[in-house]
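User: structure tokens for this one?
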Amino acid sequence: MKRIKYGVLFATLLFGSIAFTSCSTDKGEPSEANEEVKKEREELLAHVENEATWMADSLNFDALNMMTRVNEQLLEAMNKDPRFADNLKKVVTMLAARNALSNMKPVEAGSELAQMGYSAYIPIDISAFGVRVIFDEEGNYRFDPIEGLEFIFPATIEGYGATAYKWSIKNNGDWYESVSPVHLNGVRGLACVSRIPKSFTMTMSGLFDDKVVTMLKGVVNIHLDEDAESDYVSFEGNAFQVEGQLTSCLQGAAYGLPNGDGQLNISYGIDQTDRMNIGFDFTQHGRRVMDGNARMELPQKKTVVDQLTDFLLDRSRLGQEDNLLYLAQIFAGNRTDVTLNILDELTLSGTIDDGTQFCQALYDVKQQGQDSPMSADEFDGCVQRLNQACNFFLSCPHISQPVPFQWVAIQEDTKQDVQPALLFADNPEYIPLSELVGETTMDNIKKTHEATATAVGGAAGVSMQFISRLVQFMPLNIEEWEQTIR
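Assistant:
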């Protein structure tokens, strides 16, 4: 049953760790091939320069960075009292269980539940939280009963001052139902009918000049394969798809705040062939900046889902273990097909053949920029292992063949780093991108990479912690419900 309940949480974890690599090809007579390669090289590099210029000049993460800092302060408030998660979970479970017991109903004769052998049932909606949490400046909190789930808290954001913020989460009122037995003293044949929302909304807002200003809106939709012959779904084997949309709708100019017009769509699911499918697209200023998808083989699908679930639920891991190393363990031996489109002009596509080696090599390269300096030979070995684990190509409109893409190790003063490199058919070696484009383009690429990595990486990390916290508040298995309603 965990598989669907936690499905909505997994996409965020998986998007932060994709990089790219590759191979080559020949064609035609040497002179004809060289001329054609020259034309296609010019075409590809023109796209690289144009896209790098637009992204460096146009992308703006001010609103996203502000929202990330707001969420960080909400997490700080939650973490000040080590009993907070357990206290909130007790309140959520008590309120939901009380509502559930008051709604215990007899099973109708001839119904599907009656055919299953049940005589009574309790409907339980896992998203009917019914709690508002209000924090003060010192991190103290109180609970108020409401519909849905709300967090109201003060935050001080450098450059924007201090004010009150609110996160609200609400079920949209439609759900799937699954059945499991409940062992309640004095009641025989009792079923728990768990209601899983088909859709729920999220809203983040702040109080500025005594007006409530909406900063972020979100909606999550869950799609399951339903059995035409049953009113209930089984969460153990169903294919499913989860789709989420986050829209930055902050119109803050009138309040001295940044404007936000970005939209992120994310999808995650497992299809009938037992493959994990992940997709996303991000738009800003009316342009689709980036979209991508990954299709992963899952030879041990339940192990993968359960380990991801454990990662989200185990608060002791939070901030103590690198996600890349954890992913390396989860996706051992799995092959992944990946495609990434940039501004509908450039496309990176290919495969990650060894997920373990790929994630481990990414981690080693990342550590070089932090607290584990390596020798030049050691660093080059890490980059080579990264390249060996995957096979990628770069393409754009009006060229006949994708160009092999790989990482190369470079030395900049005393620092070792990696840089993209391309393999054209008229040259036996990969050429670093800095030798193919001008200094301005390379500066734009670095500027965009640093801004994107900081904003998206920070937002993803904080989002994962927030999601983990939300999961800790919910009574998500039948044992927890039974302990409460006995």
